[in-house]
Amino acid sequence: MRKIFKSFIALSLATSMVLSLAGCGNSSKKETFKEDEVVIGERTQADWIDTAIIYEVNVRQYTNEGTFAAFSSHLERLKNMGVNTLWFMPIYPISELNKKGTLGSYYSIRDYKEVNNEFGTLDEFKELVNKAHEMGFHVILDWVANHTGWDHTWITEHSEYYAKDENGNIISPLNTDWNDVAQLDYTNNDMRTAMIDAMKFWIDDIGVDGFRCDYAQGVPLDFWEQARTELDKVKPIYMVAEDGTNSDSLLNKAFDSNYNFELYDALKLASSVPNTADKLESYIKKDLPYGAFKMNFIDNHDKNTYDGTLADRFGEESLGALYTVVFTAEGLPLIYSGNEEDSDISLEFFEKDNIDFGDYKYEKLLTDFCTIKTENEPLYTGLAGGKVRMITNDNKSILSYERVKNGKKITVVVNLSNKEQTVKYDKKISKGNILLNGDSTGIINDEKTTLNTKDLNTLKPFEYYIILSE
Questions:
Q1: What is the pTM of this model?
Q2: Which residues lie across from 332 on neighbouring strands?
Q3: Which of 48, 85, 110, 296 could form a disulfide linkage to 93, CB 3.0–4.6 angstroms apart?
């Protein structure tokens, strides 16, 4: 694990590095800070995040059975694909009162310390977590701290935990259509304590490794900071915020990362509107609080259910180019349930659905990307990887950049248009081996052959290159 220090320099950014030499050529680095530097926070960051690839698991829709046991049979396949971190969408009992649809929303929770019996038992989930750990996975849970379902025990036993209107009635979250849930009141300290206790239960008793926190901006920042401090006392964890405001404040002391919604929108624009690849630059190398990073994606449960399939949103022929950016830009990549099967899957939210696995059309492509991400240090996440350095070119449909770490360089060139493009670069592209080359028709080369740099001057529709130089 590593300690992440957040600092504010009041008068000066001056920092001096003192190098002390000790016998046999060993050295250690000491940072000496000016007196006008005020340390305002610290959190622990788990080392396994460096190479994490998150796979979002929708248990209900993953198999015909929709159970923990049925999903468990896919672990070996996911491991072989290169996935190493499992994010389970909410697995808790779903409230019956005011529920939406036939089965209700995962995000309307009746009990924070139990599991939905349609999925299995708590012991079965713990067995799944243990099996995943034995296979080298880490496991994070979806956490819904802003609200509960209407038949959560707190409603009757601790009504003071909830926000109320002027007549004393518990309310749903304001300015939403979430009438199946009740808004919690974070001015109540006892409720805060109970919430953190529930989160500790899953880390301490069940062994999970972190949380994806739903609607994080709806909960006061000081609660998240309080929770993170307490949870880190149990073990180093990973926390990612679903934050529609893209606020950096959550990333100072509470969360390791948040969603890269801006990158998603820019990729959607670039893949459909000519000459807009340059809009991506600020989102693949965005400055963030020290040690923080984005979670990059082109699919998740919200986009998949409400905005259509990957093919609907981006076009099937663009996916290789888009995944290139997701896996090689600064940040951590996300894969959603079924992305490896096909691009025409859109899963129901309140009703039973099923991923009809069998063709695994994109499994080879995603396996290549996972391997490249985890085996090349420049592409590691956060502080462990290299910063993006843009390579300027004369074509606004072409995105080109490099990342360097410890003598290794990864160069990325992507045509984000559906037309052949010619391009010139403002610097010579380093010679090296092609880790992956593909286009709108699929994978062309993943055999680590030597790059002919002239090939980078004419790119086929949605063609992409990932190149390693040492």
A1: 0.92
A2: 295
A3: 110
Distance between start and end Cα atoms, the chain:
28
pLDDT-based confidence at residue 287 (cuts at 50, 70, 90):
confident
The fold of the 45-386 domain, in CATH, is: TIM Barrel (3.20.20)
Helix (H, G, I), strand (E, B) or coil at 349: coil
Q: Write out the two tokens for 157.
A: 């036993």
Backbone angles phi, psi at 454, to 5 degrees: -65, -25
Q: 389-469 belongs to which CATH class?
A: mainly beta
Decide: helix, strand or coil at residue 358: coil
**319-350 pLDDT per residue, tens:** 999 999 999 999 999 999 999 999 999 999 99
Burial class (CB in 10 A: 0-12, 13-18, 19+), 51: buried
Domain layout of the chain by residue ranges:
2-42, 45-386, 389-469
> Tokens representing 226?
């309080």
**Cα 106 from Cα 66, distance rounded (Å):** 13
For residue 225 the two structure tokens come to: 């900071």
Residues 6+ apart with CB under 8 A from 273: none
For residues 104 and 66, what is the distance between their CA atoms, to the nearest angstrom?
15
| Beta-strand runs (E) in 94-203 | 138-143, 147-149, 181-183
Residue 393 neighbours by CB under 8 Å, 6+ apart: 400, 423, 424, 425, 426
45-386 matches 389-469 in fold: no
Identify the bridge partners of residue 310 per DSSP, sorted by sequence position: none
Contacts of 450 (CB under 8 A, 6+ apart): 431, 432, 433, 434
At residue 435, the 3 state secondary structure works out as: strand
Strand 332-336 to 2-9 pairing: unpaired
User: Picking from 63-67, 143-147, 150-154, 284-288, which range would have the lowest pLDDT averaged per residue?
Assistant: 284-288
SS3 readout for 6-61 = EEEECCCCCEEEEEEEEHHHEEEEEEEECCCEEEEEEEEECHHHHHCCEEEECHHH
Residue 19 has pLDDT above 70, yes or no: no
Of residues 287, 379, 302, 364, the one with CA closest to residue 333: 379
